[in-house]
Amino acid sequence: PKVNGCDYLFERATLPALGGKMQMCLQEAGEAVYLPKGWWHATCALNEWTVGIGGQGGSPANYEQGFDDVVRVHESFATKSKDEERENLVSCGVLKDTTKYNAAVLSNNVPSKQSQENDEWKWFDGDLNEYYNKLERDEHAKRKPNVITSYAVHRWMGPERSTLVHYGLIQSAIHEVVLGQLPPRPGDHRDQMDDTRKLHVFDAGCGLGAGLMWFEQNEPSWDLVGHTISEDQHKWISEDLPKHRFEARLHTYDEPFGNLDKDSAAIAKYDAVYSIEASIHSPNLEKSIKVWSDALNPGGAIIIIDDFLSVGVPREDPDVDLFAKAWLASSVHTTADVASFAQKYGMELVRDRDLGSEYQIIKLNYRNKAPELRDEHGRAHQGWLGSKVRQRLTVQGKITYRMIVLKKKGEMTDFKRKMTKNTCDAVPVHSKTSNSEAMSITIDPVLMSGKGGGGGEKMACISGWYCCDKGGEYFDDLEANRTDRTRFLQLPKKLFGHYLTSFSKHLTDFYRTFPNDYPGKLQKGIFLDIGGTGSVASGMQQVTSKFSHFAGPLDYWVLDSDQGAKKLTNAIVCDIDNCPEAQTCGYDVTFSHTVLEHAARPWEAFDTIARITKKGGLTLHLVPWSYQYHATPDDNYRFSHTALTSLLEDRGFEILDVGYDLCTQPDDVQRKKKDEHFKEIWLTYVVGRKL
């Protein structure tokens, strides 16, 4: 009968006894193997796909061959050793003489017992305690107790190669999902024990305690508990780390309350459970999800950051199998699997973020390369083999690095909601009963060049290419000359306006609600212009005061990611997607002018805007809807009026005005210039007030 060639390789079938005349050859990528005339052969493809070029008598009509008698072996090859065979292939020019022959390394499958003896990997036979103990002993000298990054040993992410990003992501998820509020940012003022954010949090697989230490420093009111099953990791936490309040136990994370009676009324349940690169080691992830869910209060959350199997990749894939054994990854699942587990135990999947794509792990961490399965530094621990297979699987798309958030059904108690209520300073409003007068001020609807003091010179149009406020003309012309009327294409006339007129009106009305003595020495008021300097790195000229006249009585500040802004005394230099430098509830007005389309993740940019705008404050934004591509330095998104509405309403703003401003090229521009610029562009504007 016909035999699969892989059955011979993996010893699922017995090779015919031919008196030493059977040869086995492991073919490397790019090699060509020439078989002598009269040979019988069986091929086992180890890679994802293989192309074979050759000839086979009778194929395909007589493809179902028998392989009954494998005796016709070319005598000149029959008795050659593997080394002799390699020399022959080198002499033929098929292989280079530097090519290595190592079946255990080159195959993507679990090394056999014999190949393990031949390689230098140290295997731990599933003993997770000793697996991590040995890693800690090997790396202990590199640890610095006062430097969290030295013992936060999971995968780094982002251009800054930070291993602390994970904690910020988890912090945000807990605040958003459990507390229903925006997270605090570094630099926010908070008391050492702020009861407004007191939570009970469990670190499932706390390792060397990096997460616990980070959260203790950044969320001092949280009651933190972590479990590790590694004796050496627990010793590091207990003996080497600085004095801390969190509790670390030498215990399985499948028992979140340790040796305490889990049914005791005195046991305080957790508000959140998080696990970073530890859930994959669970002997039974469904069981772990169940016990974590049981340990949570209603409305609590489980946050997992780990590697997950890609949809469509079988768990039995040899690559995945090697990863599971080398990484001690007993629970390699898809996120759909985890969602199914969660649903059984009263939880639902509310977040599924592809961190691998967001943080460009294949590009930044792995340089788009699948590695050889060997360690360049001579390390023998099987975990280093696991890390290489992990890289290969990630590059191949077989596993993905993700953050999933599971929320337990039910709501937090009214008492806890009251405790976790987020407070935010409000913009002062003039009272008719006070002795002071309301402010008298008018903001003019003009554009300035932004070069020099006082905003520079007035501009007649938004740029040298376009003049705006053409929406009314467009609508009237359309109604007068239309030939068709398709309901789902139509927009009401009230959506067409002039953004400068809208912005100046709402700013004027807003400032006139201020007491006449605001801002003063004791109360500071700030207008924040997001992206207000221009992208010098992309070749644009820096501007310093383009919208300073919009600030009225407020101090004018700019926020920009361009490094050239560091030279300015009124600048915050950060990425609006994630800007811890910007003070929470610190700005009376947040503003941007054709900027947010460049954000990598604009929903996070609007998270920041919601966090930093004062209660009662204004937020005003102009973004493109129909506009040419303009990478300064990137160009990522376009926004309709409904998109801006939902982005602000979902973050606690009411919409005061939203619409489109149409801008066209003047006649002389159309006559003299031609490039990628559209003849007509649509800009979307919005004005919101934070409730």
Characteristic key phrases:
alpha/beta, seven-stranded mixed β-sheet, 26% helix, 17% strand
Describe the structure.
With 691 residues, the protein is of the alpha/beta class. Helices cover 26% and strands 17% of the residues. The chain has a 7-stranded mixed beta sheet with strand order 3-2-1-4-5-7-6. Strands 12-11-10-13-14-16-15 form a 7-stranded mixed beta sheet, sandwiched between helices. About 10% of the residues have low confidence.
Rounded mean pLDDT is 83
Poorly predicted ranges? 55-80, 92-118, 189-196, 414-421
Report how far the terminal alpha carbons are from each other: 77 Å
What proportion of the residues is helical, as a percent range?
Answer: 25-40%
Secondary-structure-based class equals alpha/beta
Q: Indicate the overall shape.
A: globular
Radius of gyration: 32 Å
Number of helices: 21
- Give the total of beta strands: 16
Strand content: 15-25%
| Major sheet description | 7 strands, mixed
Q: In order across it, which strands form the biggest sheet?
A: 3-2-1-4-5-7-6
